[in-house]
Structure formats: structure tokens, C-alpha cells
Amino acid sequence: MVAAGKAAGVAHASWQDLPLPVRAAVERNIGAKVVRSLRQTPEFDGGLAARLVLEGGNRVFVKALPADNPRVGGYRAEADVMSFLPENAPVPRLMSTVDGEWLALVFSDIEGTSPRLRPGSPELSGVLTALGALSRTLTPCPVPGAPDALEDLGPLLRGWSELSADLPDDLGDWAVRNLESLLALESSWHPWAAGDTLLHNDLRPGNLVVGGPGRVQVVNWRYPARGAAWLDLVSLVPYMLAAGHEPAGVDRLLKRRPVLAGVPAWAVTAYGVALAGHYERVSRLPEPPATSGVRVDQQRLAAVTTAWLKHRTGWR
């Protein structure tokens, strides 16, 4: 669930940078020659992302990493997951995997942009609709052996517990004053995490593609888990807040979502507490490999999520 952030932008590869055997295998697997490559922004430094124009005019999307890139394991996990996702899920179709000097994943064409989640954006409605479709089409969980969400997230979302052992000097006054209450809530969402939905587990604007009015696809399936569908929805809240939503406005949006029916408000608040603690903790760590700007983004997410918690708890 650690957000990947932006590629460091030092060495973005092009289609021609892939070794000839890898390019030949891609063309052989998709049954067409590549006549043009439209470079896109890759997820990670040193990687490739491109839309390929094929003979006949069709297009596909390819992303690739060198076999020795520290992020390549995530691409292998994604390839495994994509092979199980149903055709009616709002996700691109994995067409081919080529594993050699580079690992290349070829998908059905992805044309679009990341959604704007600001208040009043029509794209936000499409995102929420896509999340509803995701929970319906991925229940029951189609991926055998998908990790349990609580086993995956429980050890990760312990930021307040870890920070409390050695409080940072720059921790906000509100968090310091209410630390005992934050610690008490941090794990209380656990009983509500059980479910049989395949969760994306890393929902953020960079993993969503708007291809037109009401058409949103969910991409980059590197950290899936089996659990309750509402966890994916609430994990998007910090990004909505960072886009300019007021806490009360976010709460009004959440009340209308079917996946939260029957989930107590305090459990949602507790998950927000866990997310805020996670962002507070990881924002103080070194930058992850092959990325830049991740920790700055997480500082912003920690601040807006804490503001949301102030609204929901009423704690002084």
C-alpha cells in the first residue's frame, strides 16, 4: 500500500532501448509489428512505458523494467494477478508477458489521464462508479492465494505505535495531545477488514485512468489482497482531501457508497487513524528506490488525513 509516487525521471527508456529479443518476443506474442512508439511517463526510473502503434492501426500499451531493477518483483506480481481478473472488471486486459533481460507487460491500449478528484469534478463520479464496479466484479475474490488484507495491512498500518516509541520533534500538537486515543483506535478497524473481495490495495489517482466520460480503469495491480471492499474506498479519502475536498464534504460522499453499508462510522474513523499514522511514519523514511517525491507527497497526505480526523473525532 506504499504509494509509488513519481518516477525519478533520470533515465526513462524508449521502445528501441529494449533488447531486440524482447521486442521481437512482444511482436510475436501480439501477432503484429510495431510501427511507432508513443512514449509515456513510466512508473519508475529506468523503466519503459509506451503506447505502441501496430501494423493495421491497432494499439497496445507496454510497460517494462530491466530484470535487475529493484521494482521488477512488483511487475511479476501484477502479471500473476492480471491473469485471474474477469473480463467485466474495469481493468485493462493483459495480452502478453515477456520475461528476459527485461520484463515487459503488454496490455490492451490505455488512453487517458489520471482523474482530477477536486470538488465538483465530473471525473470523481466516474472514479466512485468504477470502484463500485470493481467490488462487484471482484467478489468473490478471483485470485487464489491472495493475501488476507488484515495480515497484509495490519503490520503496515502501525505508524502511531511505532512513532510513539520515539516521538518526532515535528509531530503536530494535535497528534501529541491525542496520542493515547490514536493508539487506542489504530487497530480497532481490524474486525471489519474481513471479506471476500479482491482489493487493489494501492488506490490513488496515479493508478486510475480516465478514458472518457464515466470510463475509468484501475491499473497497476502490484499489492492485491482479499478483504472488505470498503477498505479500498476509504484509502482514496486522503487523495480526495489533498485535491481540495473539505472533511465534511468527503463524509457526505462516503455516506452514499453501498460498500460502507453496515460498517460503523467509528471503524471508518479508525482506519483513517491507521492511514494517518502510516503516512506520518513513512514520510520520515528515505526515498524508495527508483522514485522521487514520494515522501513529500506522504507528508501532505498525513496533514490532510489528520485534518479529517479532527473533524470526525471532535478531539481538541
Automatic annotation (TrEMBL):
Organism listed in the record: Amycolatopsis minnesotensis
InterPro entries, per database record: Aminoglycoside_PTrfase, Kinase-like_dom_sf
Residue ranges annotated for the Aminoglycoside phosphotransferase domain, each copy included: 56-237
Name of this protein: Aminoglycoside phosphotransferase domain-containing protein
